[in-house]
């Protein structure tokens, strides 16, 4: 049996700096590899739809004809599966968390990727 | 005989972190019978396996629980790997072990905090969670997620920890260890805490074993069951002894968890010292056909992921048997005969995680 | 990584109680009871463990078969049997605590059951 076991810790914490952060005045902790939210480089996306198929929460919709990439931020579970699967590496994981929102909405990005015209001499070389 | 009354306890109650409902049959202040009921947070996780690729189900398996998420993901991966006969690289196994033990540290510290809160020791609660924050920082620095690590995948792990970071973690554990020593000294030796917990919610060894208690609940009653002894991941290569207490009361369960913190730190030190270089994952081709009961030791006890595949990329069945589910019958036994005022402490002492119990 | 040796023995429904009783007498603890819907049948797995030896027995039944409860041997089995009843609609006879379908309240009745799966396809 011991008494005042807590006293040492209590006094120590009293004189120490607080362990908490004065958020939002100070920014929240994050690391280089923190998973915040998914971003896309719309100039490189080839609309293959791999991210849509792999997404476990079905948050991503890619429309090939309309050339759009949509994400529902509230559905997204930030698992990073789409970033891993992307064949052209046009998806990135940003360390910043998604801002709070009051209504459910999808974010739409217009894909600006243009398929490069194949140089004709290559075809000749093959033939 | 005095008149019996029924007092509903939960699902909303200041002491409960999660929705568990108990109907307490009271005679004066004494609980004579308890009827537990769950079912407030059922999400149908196991059904979803039929609609998701088995590789992607890892992310869902991890989200079964918000506290021991890494171990859920790992156990699921282990099951698939066994069915498909995948040899996981050594380094990946060691990394899994390290993250599992960090998860255990974080879970036990969280629980010690909640437990302190359940008997009204706010200051201790805050201190436990402050130490937990150090553990979470390490998890975020190495995996990218504070609570949902997302570091495991079928066939290996998704992230590596560099040797510099491992050395830094090794040092950081020293600081964590000293802080935990101060913290657990209060839990184990403070007279008011001992007085509050001793002989509260006693579970005998026979009851614990036959009612299916697992984890710290079983070990607090003297049942030596620790699934890490089966040697999954890299546990077969680490030296450790399961922490067993014999009293079977709330204090014993608290002591088991407090002592396991040190055991975990030792295990991480050993794993960091022994981790081999090598690849992180192997390529997974084909689809699982067959079944396996994958077992592992969660902070709360034995966890089972049963996977059954039929040769397509969608599994037929995934059954998750979480430790809380199987700890409910022992809880009912512990509560019968206790005082009403002890109910919150006893309920908390099994570390209930209803979110995972219902999936 | 060590690979655990797991044996599964099929057991007839009539002999279930006898087999479970033997496990109990040998000092095994009940690990889990789990149900799987395969085609038109339910596979019910009873798993036991003693000193890290994992043994599993399996009963295969049609959806309308009544399963005898094993709560007489393992008091704590009620939680699995009620779960099985609520999620799959398997009838279990003689449970010590019978929630009658209120342990897990779901918006769809017996969501994991064979009948629910068929309804979805139509």
Features:
heterotrimer; A: 127 residues; alpha+beta; Alpha-Beta Plaits; 4 helices; 22% helix; C: 122 residues; alpha/beta; 3 helices; 32% strand
Question: How is this structure best described in words?
Answer:
The complex is a heterotrimer of chains A (127), B (359) and C (122). Chain A has 127 residues and is of the alpha+beta class. Chain A is built from 4 helices and 5 strands. Chain A has a domain of 78 residues: Alpha-Beta Plaits (2-Layer Sandwich), CATH 3.30.70.3270. In chain A, a hairpin with a 4-residue loop joins strand 2 and strand 3. With 359 residues, chain B is α+β, with helices and mostly antiparallel strands. Chain B has a single domain, classed as Cytochrome-c3 Hydrogenase, chain B (Orthogonal Bundle), CATH 1.10.645. Helices cover 48% and strands 14% of the residues of chain B. Chain B has 13 helices and 8 strands. In chain B, strand 7 and strand 8 form a beta hairpin. Chain B is globular. Chain C is α/β, with parallel strands linked by helices and 122 residues long. Chain C has one domain: NADH:ubiquinone oxidoreductase Nqo5 subunit (Beta Polymerase, domain 2, 2-Layer Sandwich). Chain C has a 4-stranded mixed sheet with strand order 1-4-3-2. In chain C, strands 5-6 form a two-stranded parallel sheet. The interface between B and C is large, with 42 and 38 residues.
What secondary-structure arrangement, pairings included, does this model have?
The complex is a heterotrimer of chains A (127), B (359) and C (122).
Chain A: H1 5-15, E1 37-40, H2 50-54, E2 60-63, E3 68-72, H3 81-85, E4 91-94, E5 106-110, H4 120-126
Antiparallel strand pairs in A: 1-4, 2-3, 3-5
Chain B: E1 4-9, E2 21-27, E3 30-37, H1 45-48, H2 57-62, H3 69-84, H4 90-118, H5 122-143, E4 152-153, E5 156-157, H6 163-189, H7 191-197, H8 205-210, H9 215-220, H10 250-274, E6 289-298, E7 301-310, E8 315-321, H11 323-335, H12 343-349, H13 354-358
Antiparallel strand pairs in B: 1-2, 2-3, 4-5, 6-7, 7-8
Chain C: E1 7-10, H1 16-25, E2 29-38, E3 41-50, E4 53-61, E5 66-68, H2 78-88, E6 91-93, H3 114-121
């Amino acid at each position: 049996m011991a008494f005042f076991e807590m006293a040492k810790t209590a006094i120590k914490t009293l004189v120490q700096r607080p362990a908490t952060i004065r958020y939002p005045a100070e920014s929240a902790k994050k690391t280089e590899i923190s998973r915040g939210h998914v971003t896309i480089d719309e100039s490189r996306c080839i609309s293959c739809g791999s991210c849509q198929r792999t997404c476990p929460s079905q948050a991503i919709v890619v429309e090939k004809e309309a050339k759009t990439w949509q994400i529902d931020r509230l559905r997204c579970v930030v698992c990073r599966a789409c970033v891993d699967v992307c064949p052209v590496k046009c998806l990135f994981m940003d360390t910043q968390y998604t801002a709070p929102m009051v209504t459910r909405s999808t974010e739409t990005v217009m894909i600006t990727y243009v398929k490069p015209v194949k140089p004709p001499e290559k075809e000749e070389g093959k033939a | 005989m005095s008149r019996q009354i029924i007092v509903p306890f939960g699902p909303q109650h200041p002491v409960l972190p999660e929705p568990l409902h108990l109907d307490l049959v009271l005679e004066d202040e004494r609980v004579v019978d308890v009827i537990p009921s769950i079912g407030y947070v059922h999400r149908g996780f196991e059904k979803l396996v039929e609609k998701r690729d088995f590789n992607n189900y890892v992310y869902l398996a991890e989200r079964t629980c918000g506290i021991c998420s890494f171990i859920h993901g790992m156990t699921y991966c282990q099951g698939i790997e066994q069915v498909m006969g995948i040899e996981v690289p050594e380094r990946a196994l060691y990394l899994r072990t390290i993250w599992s033990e960090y998860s255990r540290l974080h879970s036990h510290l969280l629980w010690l905090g909640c437990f302190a809160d359940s008997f009204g020791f706010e200051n201790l609660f805050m201190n436990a969670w402050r130490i937990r924050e150090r553990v979470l920082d390490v998890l975020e620095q190495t995996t990218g997620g504070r609570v949902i690590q997302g570091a495991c995948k079928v066939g290996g792990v998704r992230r590596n920890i560099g040797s510099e970071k491992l050395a830094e973690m090794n040092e950081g554990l020293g600081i964590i260890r000293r802080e935990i020593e101060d913290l657990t000294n209060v839990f184990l030796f403070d007279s008011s805490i001992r007085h509050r917990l001793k002989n509260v919610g006693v579970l005998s060894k026979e009851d614990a074993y036959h009612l299916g208690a697992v984890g710290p609940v079983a070990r607090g009653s003297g049942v030596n069951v620790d699934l890490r002894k089966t040697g999954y991941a890299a546990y077969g290569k680490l030296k450790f002894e399961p922490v067993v207490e014999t009293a079977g009361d709330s204090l014993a369960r608290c002591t088991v968890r407090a002592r396991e913190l040190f055991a975990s730190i030792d295990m991480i030190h050993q794993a960091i010292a022994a981790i081999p270089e090598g690849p992180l994952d192997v390529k997974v081709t084909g689809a699982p056909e067959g079944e396996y009961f994958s077992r592992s030791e969660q902070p709360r006890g034995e966890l089972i992921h049963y996977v059954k595949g039929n040769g397509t990329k969608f599994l037929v069945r995934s059954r998750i048997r979480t430790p809380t589910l199987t700890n409910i019958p022992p809880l009912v036994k512990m509560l019968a005969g206790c005082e009403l005022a002890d109910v919150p402490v006893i309920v908390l002492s099994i570390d209930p995680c209803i979110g995972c119990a219902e999936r | 990584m060590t690979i655990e040796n797991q044996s599964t023995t099929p057991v007839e429904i009539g002999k279930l109680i006898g087999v479970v009783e033997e496990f109990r007498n040998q000092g095994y603890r009940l690990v889990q009871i789990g149900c799987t819907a395969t085609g038109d049948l339910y596979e019910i797995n009873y798993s036991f463990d003693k000193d890290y030896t994992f043994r599993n027995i399996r009963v295969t039944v049609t959806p309308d078969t009544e399963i005898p409860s094993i709560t007489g041997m393992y008091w704590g089995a009620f939680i699995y049997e009620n779960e099985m009843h609520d999620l799959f609609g398997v009838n279990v006879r003689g449970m010590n605590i019978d929630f009658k379908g209120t342990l897990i309240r779901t918006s769809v009745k017996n969501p994991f059951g064979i009948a629910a799966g068929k309804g979805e396809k139509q």
